[in-house]
Amino acid sequence: MHGSFTVVHSTGRDALLDAAALLARDVAVRWRREEELRRVHDPFPLSVRWHTSVEGLSDHWSNIRRSPAGGAAGALRLDGRLDEVVEVFRRVPSGRLVVLGPAGSGKTVLALRFVLDMLDARTGADPVPAVFDLGSWDPRARSLRDWLADRLAQDYPVLAEPSPTGLPLAWALLDAGLVLPVLDGFDEMAPGLRAPAVLALNRTVAWFLMTSRVQEYADAVASTDVVTAAACVELAPLGLSDVADYLPRSTRPGASASTVWEPVLQHLHDSPPTPAAVNLTAVLSTPLMLSLARTIYSDTIDHDPLELLDSTRYADVPALEDHLLSTFVPVAYGDTPPGTSARDPEVSKRHLSALAWHMTSWGTRDLEWWRLRDAVSGPTRALWLALIGALEPVLACLLTLPVLPFILSDSWGEPTMVYTLFVVPLMLISGRGAWYGYLAGRFGTGGIPSRAHRVFPGLLRMLTLVRIGPVVMSAATLGLWSAIHLASGGDYWVVIAAIAVAVVFLVVNGSMPRWRTRVDLTTVVAPWSLRDADRTNTILQALAKFLVLGLGFVAALLIIVKGRSQELGFCVMVMTIFLGDRALWSGLAGTAWGQWVLLTCVWLPLTDQAPRRPADFLEDAHRRGVLRQNGAVYQFRHARLQRHLARSHQPRRFRRDPPMPYRDLVDLARLATHGNSLVYKDRPTIDNPYGDEASGRGKDAKVT
User: Fold this and answer.
1) Distance CA 427, CA 477 (A)
2) What is the per-residue pLDDT for 131?
3) Alpha carbon distance 94, 168 (integer Å)
4) Domain span at residue 435?
5) Cα dihedral: 96, 97, 98, 99 (round 10)
6) Are residues 468 and 512 in the same domain?
7) Is the same domain home to 225 and 291?
């Protein structure tokens, strides 16, 4: 292919087609499972329909039709229903379709149906539709192509492998036109990022299907430009006849083939309608609220749908919607579906509300397991990891106790020598562990899961990968210890041996980030595949480090047994144990899996801020339909459900981070630069989850 795409040779093209086939299979399995969990076909798919959007949101029809210069073109007929979404998309010559609709109108279900129908009709060379959540894209920092490639590599780790062209498979598939992006949730982007997103889309020629709420898309288009060559359709609300067809068939029949919905539907059909009937009809006109009502009243016998017509309890549409949203989670946890365990509904709702609150405060809809560490406040996280970092060397030193009687003989076991060789290194490395723990907890990110890539660098490459931080810290520790040791009359050979062990360890430790594990795309990639890959990678790195250090330990024992130098042997042994502790600590505090274990699986459950087994809890919520899976992350079933749960959460006061000390210095520097006014970028809140800078309101916040 030419133009904006990379030229791919025949053998390279075949390899990309094979990768696209594997990707298509995994996408199909994943989204069919999601469709089953959403119960889209139980009892039948809702009759979602749409019509061509009003003028002013779509581009010129001549651009949409890709007409030549000077050519005129009329409007396309794009009206349709859910089972015609692929056909309607193929009527658009530009391959760009924007689906608009209010919250809960079925945009995501339409996108899901589009993906599965496209895959059913796909031939070998057709692009693979893949869903991308636009809420995580910052068009000011990343181009659309780079962001799409990063998401592909994260959601399908094997696509980070190199292709025959030398590029990672994710990039190569995009360049070859073998991926069709389905961009879900344009309205979920920060308000200040929507206009740059439109401009970024206009700089590409890629095909895509995009979903958004109407007003958010209209505001972005009004402030910049329409999306080039994009046609827009708008979802229509469900009619009362659609509701009357769906709800009775979603519950068991009663006497005379009637159902619990018959009195409600009869009231809705009465003329003239009552205010309660008008409100309920409006609520049930969206697929989201209709599905919630079905879950609460059709699938259980504890709730009577007639209560929805109680105008004293539910005076307007928002009150009815809040009732359905707040009742959904307890009902979802009221039974125990196959493959799940019994859980307390109220406790589960409290944990889900805490997750929703954190995600909203972070300004994201993606529930990434490696980011749950941030649910612990910065000071608490730093103190917890510092405590573990300080105590871990003490536990490591306990390993030397069985061999101390053998090592400490009368010939050299002076108290000063024992203090020099044992106690001083213990104090230094314990302090270093506490400092590393504090830095990792307060300022570190914990890293992201390992990429699916394995490289074994050569000796010269290993030397260039030695990291400066561990070198400086090890040099300071060795320097202080060597000074004390030599001042007490120690042997130079002891210092040389210690330095040799440290150098070997630092070289191996520096090359570890280049060693990765593979994840097979032929299996269904779940969010926990990345966790398992990162855990395997961390363990393999630790084993490689311990192998090198084990050789030093054996050498120390041989030196002692042969009687050549008990002092030298003891030095090498202690140095080996301390560096082994450093290897273990770096695997725990410096990796995503390590911080997941220490913070998410230990600290949060201990303080009753998370369930005992967070991974099982999230997977269980996914099976119950509260969460959905989007690649390597979880999301709440709908953004409205996340916002509702977030508002119901009451965060503990001690979990809020105090102002960081250096913010005052930064503010002073900005004041010196910009005069007597200072623009603040406030932290995200529930009502303003993206901060003032992204929402465009920061210009009104000034500090004098």
Assistant:
1) 10
2) 93
3) 27
4) 377-598
5) -160
6) yes
7) no
Dump the DSSP string for 492-554: HHHHHHHHHHHHHHHHHHHHGGG------TTS---HHHHHHHHHHHHHHHHHHHHHHHHHHHH
> In the chain, what percentage of residues exceed pLDDT 70?
66
Residue 367 makes CB contacts below 8 A (sequence gap 6+) with: 355, 359, 618, 627, 633, 634, 635, 636
Mean pLDDT along residues 578-587: 61
What is the tens place of the pLDDT at every residue in 199-252? Answer: 999 999 889 999 999 999 999 999 999 999 999 999 999 999 999 999 999 988
Residue 305: burial class (beta carbons within 10 Å; 0-12, 13-18, 19+): buried
Tokens of 39: 């119960």
Query: Are 194 and 97 found together in one domain?
Result: yes
Number of domains in the chain: 4
| CA–CA distances in Å: residue 664 to residues 33, 669, 671 | 50, 9, 10
The lowest-confidence range among 10-14, 102-106, 457-461, 633-637 is 457-461
Residue type, 687: D
Phi, psi dihedrals of residue 232, rounded to the nearest 5°: -120, 140
pLDDT tens readout for residues 22-58? 999 999 998 998 888 888 888 888 989 999 987 789 9
Length of the chain, please?
Answer: 704
Of 166, 201, 235, which closes a domain? 235
Whether the predicted pLDDT of 105 surpasses 50 = yes
User: CATH number of the domain that 191 lies in?
Assistant: 3.40.50.12060
Residues with Cβ within 8 Å of 208's Cβ and at least 6 positions away in sequence, in order, are 95, 96, 97, 180, 181, 182, 183, 201
Q: Using CA atoms, how far apart are residues 509 and 542, in angstroms rounded to an integer?
A: 9
State both tokens at 273. 């309608």
pLDDT at position 170 is 92
The rounded distance, in Å, linking the Cα atoms of 149 and 392 is 40
